[in-house]
Design brief:
Layout (H helix, E strand, L loop, with lengths): L3 E9 L5 H17 L3 E17 L2 E13 L2 H12 L3 E8 L2 H11 L2 H12 L1
Antiparallel strand pairs: 1-3, 1-4, 2-3
C-alpha cells in the first residue's frame, strides 16, 4: 500500500486545561499510529484567536501533525475528530512533493534565518 504525506491541523476548545489538551492530542496520535501512520513532525501552536467565533468561542488551542500514512488513515482520523466534542475545527490535507520540501526547509529553520537577514538589511 502506498504511503502519502499529510498534514492535519485541529483546534481544541479553549475550556481545556493543559493536561486535558495533551490527553486529547495523544488520543489523535494513537489513532494515527494504530492505523499505520508514521508521524514526521508535530507543533503545538498554543492558544490563538479565531478568525471568527465558532460555537460562541473566540479562541482555541491549535495543533499541527505532519504524517506519512496509507490513504485510509485520514478517514479514521477525521471520524475520531468528529466524535470528539473537544474539537472545534479540523483540516487534513494531502501534501505534494513541493509542500513536503517546503515543510522540511521550514523545520530546518531556513526561513527564520532569511527573515533575520532581511531585518538586518532594513
Amino acid at each position: 500500500m502506498e504511503l502519502r504525506n499529510y498534514e492535519t491541523v485541529f483546534i481544541l476548545t479553549p475550556l481545556l486545561n493543559e493536561v486535558q489538551m495533551q490527553e486529547t492530542v495523544e488520543k489523535f496520535r494513537e489513532v494515527l499510529k494504530e492505523n499505520g501512520a508514521d508521524i514526521i513532525h508535530e507543533e503545538n501552536w498554543g492558544l490563538r484567536k479565531l478568525a471568527y467565533p465558532i460555537q460562541k468561542k473566540s479562541t482555541g488551542f491549535y495543533h499541527l501533525i505532519e504524517f506519512k500514512a496509507p490513504t485510509n488513515v485520514v478517514d479514521a482520523l477525521e471520524l475520531t475528530y468528529r466524535r470528539d466534542e473537544k474539537v472545534v475545527r479540523f483540516l487534513t490535507t494531502a501534501l505534494d512533493k513541493h509542500a513536503v520540501a517546503y515543510n522540511e526547509r521550514r523545520r530546518n529553520g531556513e526561513f527564520k534565518s532569511q527573515a533575520k537577514k532581511e531585518e538586518v538589511k532594513g
